[in-house]
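seq:
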Amino acid sequence: MQSDLADYCVDFALSKGASYAEARLEERDSNGFLLKNGLLESAGFDSRAGIGVRFILRNCLGFATVNRLSKEAVRETLSSSLKVTSAASRLTDCTRLASSKAVKAKDVVSCSESPSSVSAEQKTELLSHIDSAVLSSGAKITSRYLSLSDEVVRKYYVNSEGSKIESVYPAIDFFYSFTLDANSRSGHRYWHYGDVGGYECFKHWQLDKVVEREARGLERNLSEAKSVSGRKFDVIAGPEVVGIMVHESVGHPYEADRILGREAAQAGESFVNPSMIGKRIGSAAASVVDDPLAKGFGRYCFDDEGVRAKRKNLVTKGVITEFLHNRETAASLSTASNGASRASDYDKEAIVRMSNTFLLPGGYSEEELFSEVKNGIFIKNFQEWNIDDKRLNQKYVGSEAYFVKNGEIASPAFQPTIEIDTPSLWKAVAACSNKVELHAGECGKGEPMQGIRVSMGGPHCLFKQLRLA
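struct:
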């Protein structure tokens, strides 16, 4: 990597009057394959590199990117950006960054089967094998879509405060979607698998068994499921459902830039405000964390501002305890950054993002949790969801779901739907099982849009007396 060029970016910005500067050099190699109804529809690779430079000049924040990796190109690009930022400084508020310790570190993720060691032919064979497994379910599949991608991202981060961080992160990403018909009903199942590492992750997932089981479960649900008829039930939500609840109703509204109104024009606002730290939002059984150090798709050890990653305790026993911060939002709220600043690529500015966000486990085994339910519903996974732009009112529609009778899973339930506000949802948590599952996703945020790797999940969770549509 041309780390000396990133160093030069920082030095050049400082020489032109910047009070702070940082540079993030990234090299990214990726491959992607798409199988549609058994046919290879696309296959390709990408290799790119560039530097993103952020600086403060006359108390105004500036950002510039360059993909021509030469000192001449850096001088040309930064000179122009510095000039624009200087002019804009008369019209903008003073930019402050919370203090952060200088870090010098290397963060290299090892893998036993690197993306480059697996041929394109082997990767397409993996997809074909999974596609065959969908068909072997015997369900009436009307369409199927499988995608596989991998990448290796090499970064070098440097700032004017003394930080220098090198990292190498390989990642694997698989997505499947299929539609099937049964009993004059149509159903759709999709899900995402991903992890930081190599193709050893892919083998661990056993996706051929997963998709066959999912197809059979959805077919049975469409064929046999009965309506829940708008009654109140005790509800056990599976980790996939808990994950989307946590991500949408806790993760996003606890992003400090959103709380401060900086996303209002694009993605909306938050029902949370800074004065709510220490306020109760859920039951004592509900604790939610965002942990980039956990093994998941959103794993990292240093964020894109050079801040060391740490677990963020967003909700502790039902009480709001922490927000997600970068250095700028932390300064605005008189606290320290907790390492939640991420960018999807070198040419995007780092903003406040989630990583691995999940509900903490409780003390029940899954069997004990189900034994608490005499007449209820188990929602294993979901087919759709939505939430308002303040992250307050939301809806989750079950896909594979079942009635629970006297602690036992019984007959299928047809698309049980939870419509509820965020405090009522988390105050209804009665108990959690003792095993957490994390599920991969791609979280979209920002303008321009930045899709970034995350995980979401939790244990099986018992909610008391939710009204289902």
